[in-house]
Specification:
The protein is α/β, with parallel strands linked by helices and 368 residues long. Helices cover 50% and strands 11% of the residues.
Length: 368
């Protein structure tokens, strides 16, 4: 199978049911890891199986070395006392230098926090430590919010039929019950709103770590959410004075709810059965990112062009992962003409990088 190496961002915990479907197409999937493995490595745990099979590749851009154990203690402390540390971590998040806290104040907060847990650091490491902490805290908060959202969604869905029935009654209008239901729907809408600022801060911190040591050369970047890709879109638009071009929308299961060992088995089976489709899509991507000059209005510049790979892919998907059981998510692919992503984001040359494509390619998970 032709590997289409992909860099996933900004999440660092990819071993869960909502990200397993990405492995059907994006392999190997590179991801950033904040903390290097300790003695014994990770071969004994479930995530180690994915690494051993070559489905994923971990990248540690800023190893902790002798501070590893203390950093683990710090993260555990943050989990237990989120409210206590949240205000401090908000201070050190990336932001406008003209409106946010001064660099001196941010550095003092970092120093105090690290000293509390006995972490040694050099003054030159301040920005790296800041990035580590922002990414780690963002993941902790995201996990909590997702759990809360799921719980509220289940409760809301349970009462949905009763809500619809009650609203259909003329005498129910203006009652306290309907007013309460209106408030519940408003709260649900607020929970659904993307947290753009937090996502941008998290992505900025992730990119700071990546600049310390870029991953091996990849052909595509893949954003966990639309908000995660906004940093790239914004920079591209400011430089190119035009928008990224959506070129293809590919369906994937919404989740694969299974143990790691079974996920690997079903992913590899699906890959074997779709090898011709995968190679066709890869060839189309390779063609479109290397065609110069790029003509935005040309049919040849869009995907699929003269192929039915995407349609064949969805047919196989229905066979292995019926929509009635596994639901559907999508990845939307965008071309960034004239701007390879490493160049766009001013990243150092990746190790093992060969001739870079003429255009950038960015996937967005769950994009409409």
């Amino acid at each position: 199978m032709n590997a289409y190496e992909t860099l996933f961002f900004p999440d660092t915990d990819i071993f869960n049911e909502k990200y397993y479907p990405l492995l059907l197409f994006f392999t190997p999937l590179h991801f950033l890891q904040l903390i290097e493995q300790g003695a014994g490595g990770n071969s004994a745990n479930e995530s180690g199986l994915f690494l051993e099979r070559g489905l994923c590749k971990a990248h540690i851009p800023a190893p902790l070395g002798e501070d590893r154990q203390q950093f683990l203690r710090l993260i555990e402390g943050i989990r237990k006392r989120k409210e206590h540390y949240l205000a401090q971590l908000k201070i050190i998040s990336p932001g406008s230098a003209t409106t946010g806290p001064s660099e001196n104040k941010k550095n003092l907060v970092i120093s105090s926090l690290l000293q509390e847990f006995g972490i040694k650091r050099q003054a030159s490491d301040q920005s790296l430590w800041r990035a580590r902490l922002v990414v780690a805290m963002a993941e902790i908060l995201a996990a909590d919010e997702e759990s809360l959202h799921e719980e509220f969604s289940e409760q809301f869905a349970f009462f949905n039929e009763e809500i619809t029935a009650l609203r259909s009654l003329p005498e129910a209008k203006g009652t306290e019950e309907v007013d309460l239901l209106d408030k519940l729907e408003s709260l649900m809408a607020e929970l659904e709103k993307p947290r753009l600022k937090d996502s941008v801060n998290r992505t900025e911190a992730w990119l700071r770590l990546l600049k310390n040591q870029p991953p091996p050369s990849v052909k595509m970047w893949l954003a966990a959410t639309r908000d995660s890709g906004e940093r790239i879109f914004t920079r591209y638009e400011s430089i190119s004075h035009t928008s990224a071009v959506p070129v293809l929308r590919l369906a994937i299961p919404a989740y694969i709810d299974a143990s790691g060992k079974y996920v690997i088995e079903i992913v590899e089976k699906f890959q074997r059965d779709t090898i011709a489709i995968h190679r066709g899509l890869v060839a189309d991507f390779d063609r479109i990112v290397s065609t110069v000059p790029y003509l935005r209005d040309s049919p040849e510049s869009l995907l699929p062009f003269g192929t039915d790979w995407a349609e064949l892919w969805e047919g196989k998907l229905d066979k292995y992962f019926p929509a009635s059981r596994d639901e559907r998510n999508h990845v939307t692919f965008y071309l960034l003409p004239g701007q390879p992503l490493s160049q766009l984001l001013s990243l150092p040359n990746s190790s093992g990088a060969s001739n870079e494509a003429a255009h950038g390619l960015l996937g967005i998970l769950g994009s409409s």
